[in-house]
Amino acid sequence: MKKVLLLSVSAMILLSSCVSKKLYTDLQAKQKETQDLLNSATVKLNSCLEDRASATAKVSLLEGQVDDLKKYNDNLQVLSAKGASNVEKTLESIKEKELKITRLQDALTKKDSVTLAVVTSLKREVGINDPDIEINVEKGVVFISIADKLLFKSGSYNVTARAKEVLAKVAKVVNSKPDFECMVEGHTDNIPYKKDPLLDNWDLSVKRSTSIIRVLQELNVNPAQLIAAGRSSYVPLVDNDTAENRAKNRRTRIVVLPKIDQFYDMVEKEMKNLSAGGN
How many Å separate Cα 45 from the centre of its chain? Predict the structure, then answer.
């Protein structure tokens, strides 16, 4: 561009002395037009350079965003794979739990029939029909409740002779279920008890439990199946407001504790027996 200007100036000087004024004026106009074109081209060039720099910056930014999106997509695929695996494991666990729940619900829907079947089976097996002896099933556990008057004299923990006859029948029940555990629970009324060496109703309830356990052991019940427990007066059947009610609360309860699968098998067996009997 400088060369063009120098040539134009030189031409003007050289020709000024030998050309006409009109020609000189035309050349000046032409030079101005050329200068204007040069200025316009320079402005456009600078604008293009700015646009190019801006476009380059945008491209760089977009490339960075693309890289970030690629990394995010890779991480998302990894998380999706882990999530799918976790969902699959969760579904398997839910299916297993649903199967167990279904089995338990099947047993619960037969609750009344099951209770009747098991109680009838046990009474038939040992011939227990005494109103002071109750056998029932609650939540998969068999309970044998024996009134205090059949086992002990008032305020005593020594087992009576009549009690041993009753406990012989109970021993037969326990021996028929060698895989079960049996907890012997002693219960008293709320009248305070204190007689050496016992301190209170807690001692009396536990001492009665261990006395019965010793008799059961003498009747060849496996001692590893037996658990001694005392509840004192804190789990009454009825209010301790009359002599009759207090007599009801003085009792010994033998809790037969099967495993869940054992109880379910027992349920199935007794339900089949009931069905066969009905047919």
Answer: 72
Model confidence band, residue 183 (pLDDT cutoffs 50, 70, 90): very high
Q: Which helix (H) or strand (E) holds 101?
A: helix 21-109
Q: How many CB atoms lie within 10 A of CB 105?
A: 10
How many CB atoms within 10 Å of residue 25?
Answer: 10
DSSP assigned state of 153: -
Instruction: Tell me if 206 sits within 8 A of 230, measured CB to CB.
Output: yes
164 confidence band (pLDDT: 50, 70, 90): confident
For residues 104 and 257, the answer to whether their CB atoms sit within 8 Å is: no
The b-or-e profile of 142-154 (16+ CB within 10 A means b, else e) is bebbbbbebbbee
Query: In this structure, are residues 136 and 123 in contact, taking their beta carbons and an 8 Å threshold?
Result: no
What distance in Å separates the CA atoms of residue 142 and residue 249, rounded to the nearest whole number?
19
For 141, the token pair is 């556990």
Cβ–Cβ < 8 Å for 140, 147: no
3-state percent breakdown (helix, strand, coil) of the chain, nearest 5: 65, 15, 20
Cα(189)–Cα(242) distance, integer angstroms: 10
Find the helix or strand (DSSP H, E) in which 208 lies: helix 201-218
Q: Residue 204's CB: how many other CB atoms inside 10 A?
A: 25
DSSP state of 149: G
Q: Would you put residue 8 in left (φ > 0), alpha (ψ -120 to 50) or beta?
A: alpha
Q: How far, in Å, CA of 115 to CA of 244, rounded?
A: 28
Decide if pLDDT at 224 tops 70. yes
Taking a C-beta distance cutoff of 8 angstroms, is the pair 16, 24 a contact?
Answer: yes
Residue pLDDT, tens place only, 239-268: 999 999 998 899 999 888 766 566 666 666
How many Cα neighbours within 13 Å face the side chain of 17? 3
